[in-house]
Structures are given as C-alpha cells and as structure tokens.
Amino acid sequence: MFKKPVDVKTVQRLSGADKKKLRRTAKERFPQASDADLDAILPPKGEITLAKYPNHALVYAIEGEFPMIFNTDARGHDLFPTVYALWKVPHLLPAFTLKGGEVSRYVIGGADLMFPGISIPPEGFPSFEAGQPWAVKVPGNPAPIAVGITTMSSTEALKAGLRGKALRIVHYYRDMLWDSADGRYVPNEGFFEDIVVEDPNFVSTSQSPDSTEETTEATHDSEDAAVGTSDTADPGIQREATEEITDGVNELKLPEDKSTEQTPDEKEHQNLTTEEIDSLLDKCLLQALYTSIKEKELPMPGSTLWSNHILPCRPPGVTLDIKKSSHKKLSKWLQSKSSSGLISAKEDKYKKEVILLGINRKHPYYVAFKPEKRVQEPVEHEKAVAESSVTKQLEVAEIYKPSSHVKPIFVAVEADMEKYYSASEASDIVFRYVEKENLVKPTDKAKVILDVALCDALYKGAIKKGTAYPTEIHKKDLGSTFLNRMQVHHIVIRGTQEVIRKGAIKTIQIMTERRQGNKKMTRLSGLECFLMDPDSLASELQKKFACSTTTAELPGKKGQYEVLVQGGVIDDLAKHLVDHYGVPKRYIEVYDKTKR
User: Fold this and answer.
1) Where is this region: Disordered (predicted)?
2) Confidence (pTM)
3) Tell me: the pLDDT tens digits for 346-360?
C-alpha cells in the first residue's frame, strides 16, 4: 500500500470530538492498550492531523512528528499502528518473530510473510483469527519492523501444515509511510544489524558484483518458503534499498523496561562456553527423551522437538541458543545425535527441516542418564494445580482417520490405517508418498505431479463427469486437499475422560430470548460434546447468578439436554465456560434475540 510514492490529497487537523472518537475506536481495535499507551500514540493535548491518500488510505499523525495510526479502506474502523507507534508501545499488537534476521530483508522489501518464516515460541503456536492485525519482529530486537493482516486462522494454518501466506504486509520499516515522517528515526543504534544479520549464505555489501549475483541466485529458492513474492521486490532493488537503510541509523532507543533486566544469575548463564552449551544441549535432549517425548508422537518435526520439549527442559534462567553451540544449526545437531545412534532422524527435503523418527532407548548415553526430578515450590505447585483444574482440564482437537479414498497412499508408505492422525501428521503422510515416488515437478519445485494413485486419492468421485482430472497440484494445496478426503473426527479429553466422536466439533449455543413480557431467559445447549453434566452445571449456575435454573431434554434429540437460566446472563455465562471449564471461545456461539 505504501511501496510507491503517493502525493497526499488533503491534510487537516482533527477536532476535539473527532480525536475522542478516534481514541475510542483505537481502544476497541487494540483492547490490550492502556490509557497511558493511548496517550503515548495519541497525546490528549497534542494536535492530530488526518492525511487522505488517493489509494483511500487515511493516516493519523502527531502534528510535526510521526504518523501513528492508519487504515486502508477510508472507513476508519480497521485501524493499524505504524512502526513508529509500535516503537513507542511494542505490546500494542501481538507479534510474529522471524526464524532468522535474514528473512527480514524481504519483509522490508514489501514481501508478504509466509508460515515457514515464522519462529514457533516455546509455549506453542499462537492462536489467532483471520483478518487480525499482527506485527513482525526479528530475533533479539523488541522493535517491530512491519505490520500486516493474518490471511487465515491458526486452526486453518495447522490444517494446512503451516504452509502458505501468514501475513499480508500493509506497512513496513522504510516504506513511503515511514518516510513521510518529519523526524524519521530508528529505535536504536543496532536496529539494522538485528534486522539483516550477517550470514555467508546471503548478500554482503562487501562482495563484488559478480559474487553478489551468484549468491543471490543460489539462495533465492530457499527463501521462497519463508517470504511471499512482491511485484516490486526485485533483488537488485532490494540490495540497493538494504545498503541505503544503514545510512539512516541513529542512537534513539525504545523505552527501557525494568522487567526485562537480567538478574545476576541469568547474566552468569549467558556467559556459557561453547563446550558448556553443547553439554547442556545433550542434557536437555536426554531429559526430554525420558520425560516428555512419547512414541506415539513420532515422527516429530525438529522445530516441534526444540520448542515443545528441548527448551522446557533447560534450567531456570538459562537462554539456550543453538547458534552459540559448535553445531550452529538445529539440523546439524540432530543429525550428529542420529550419527551417534541415540536417535533416528532424517531431513525432510520439502519442509527443509530434520524429522525425529525414533529413539534408541538402549543406547549407552540413554541408559546411563538419570533424569532430574524437578520439585516446584508449594505456592507454584498450588498455582499449577489450580490452573490445571480450571483452564487446562479440557483438551479438544480435530483428528482424521484414513478413508477408502486415501488407503492406497497409506499402504504405499506403510502407515497404520486404523490410527487417528492430527492435521500435520496426515499431511506428512502424503508428502512422504510424494518423496517416495519422486513426484515433485522438475521444472517447478513448488508443484507436485499427480500419478494415478495420488490423483484418485485426491479427486476420484469429486470431479464432475466430462471434466478432465488435474495433472499437478501446488504443494500449499496438497495437505488441505488430502485432509478433505479423510474422515473427520474429534477428540475431547477432560481429566480421566476421553471420547472420540465422528464428525467435526460441535459448538455450545447460548441464546437469550424474552419470555412472558419483558422477562429474559438464557438457554444453554451442546454441553455433552465437551463432557459437561447439564444437571451439575445448572446447580452451579443457580448459586453463581442467584437465579432459577432447570434442565430439559431437547425435542427430538434423545440424551441431549439444555440448561435454562433465568435472566439475561449471556456474556457472564460465556465467560464462566471459558474461565472455569476451559472451553475455547471459538466453540461458543452466542445469540441475543432480545436486541431489536
């Protein structure tokens, strides 16, 4: 949107009423922002200007300073913060962190962000919906470098095997919107170095023109998975822009956050030698193999092994950085452990990461290792138990069972037909078949040639008569198309109860309607899907809301009940289900029939 220079149509000051309206809209758009945060980007006593662009964008700026907020459709509701606003209030938006600083050179060149370029945090893949604003950060730098809109929800992303476009970038560091500020700056002296890290695989400004051209061609294919293409993202132009960025750096810094200061113990842990880091890596791997990795979870992607199992096993206060080890890369470290015989690992050429296939529990290192028993302090233990009994007691997930359509694919790769698979595991099956049969198109590595078995598995019975069958499919569509041909099931786990049912997960319905004049009644149904007892919940709600409650069997649905609650408690009831029963918000549907 701001890639090319555009002349502003009009600039005007906002009136007091318009500033208040903008502030209210910003508060709704950024609910995590405090009043102090809003004061930082929209000062109450400062003048706010509105600039209108020919491309229908509206930009709100502090007069004489920086643009702070903009929207892309001239309606004023879908607001986005600029990078200047995010440098003042970094937590204004949730942020994706890039896997490496080298990917950032394409993001600040105008390319969209793809899922393979995102680093998955230790706590797991974040939850988000399609159309939400998110920021982009580089490792080791709290200053966001871009703002974009999510193209799909986290559920859809996991179904697609974390492939495809994650974020459509609408504004980035060094675009025309950034350049329009009266006092352009970057937040700290090392900002550029954090963004474009020095890497022998990428272009260096000290290289000769010939060597630069060869390096760019050699690395172009490997970068496509991490960033999207851009019509203005010419490699030559990007190199020139990258060189220009270094000239604009000065010594301004983000506001310091005392909470991020390191304790003496943490500083001591940061000074580990290469040998100590190697030893700590091996110890964390063995601890994970003993305590958290189960055979049914294999094969497991290396990124999942690292974020969900290795990092949680590190000692408190320790930052474990694979780049500071002698191996430098996670893939090389896992391959070295595979060579030693401790684990069995193989590189996935399509996902470009190492997959953990098996564990040798008879290996001398495994046998000799004694896992640590980590004892929590009483207060922390009680807190953990409380959290477990509230929000973590429910687990809900969609799983897939092989159907007759995909049976030849499972048989070809010797996969279990009776097993239930997650979305990522099912996608791995079809990609294993592609690798085994060597079906990647030689002239276009992003596409897969369909042989007879794979074509029937994906399209037999789904193509209208007289229509030609496809001969190839894009990799980003292969996983989702394969999942659509499998039987959808869902698993619900609450405490010791575990149920697997056929079909997609059904939602809980909460509906408020008027009864006998102006009285309100709230109806709650669909509890059985989440292993909740209607009678027990009715008794609980009676005490919580101090009102009359009852249960009744749904007409025509034997064994399914609804809870009737006197009064319009629709919002409080939904919050109670989320906070005390761990029901995800996306599985709760709310209907208020009392509003006219």
Assistant:
1) 202-271
2) 0.39
3) 887 776 678 898 999
